[in-house]
Amino acid sequence: MDRHVTALGVVYIASGILGCLIGLFLFWVIAGSGLLSGNPKGMAVTSIVATVLAGTFALFSIPEIIAGIGLLKRRPWSRILTLILGVLSLLEIPIGTAVGIYTLWVLLKPEAAQFFQNPDVANQAAG
Fold it and tell me: Which are the contacts of 125, defined by CB distance < 8 A and separation ≥ 6?
């Protein structure tokens, strides 16, 4: 159980960081293209679009980073948060679907609930 939870934590942190980087890149490209146009209306529109897109990516990526850190620290709340994010990721075909299935497979096992209630005891029993 410990290896699977650690792997999930790393996957969610990496996915969250990647989402934030994509958001920043999109902001840079879209807002930058508005600046290059030299058109004041174009700058205003592209900066709004860039801010909304970057904010949307951050809105969905930051909870993944939080969930991943919680999983690595074996916090009980992280199991619930990760399950919610895993269900949402099922819609992100194909990679998100695979991550969502793996998340559900790991965190819906009966021993997962025990593991997050007392991770030290669960590791000793399994080891």
Answer: none
- The reply to whether 22 falls in a domain is yes
**Is the per-residue pLDDT at 127 higher than 60?**
no
Residue 86 pLDDT exceeds 50: yes
Please report whether residue 127 resides in a domain. Answer: no
Domain that holds residue 41: 2-116
Q: In whole numbers, what is the pLDDT of the chain averaged over residues?
A: 91
Total domains present in the chain: 1
CB-based contact 85:67 (threshold 8 Å): yes
Note whether residue 36 is domain-resident.
yes
Q: Nearest-CA neighbor of 46 among 60, 67, 21, 29?
A: 29
Taking a C-beta distance cutoff of 8 angstroms, is the pair 117, 110 a contact? no
C-alpha neighbours within 13 Å on the C-beta side of residue 127: 9
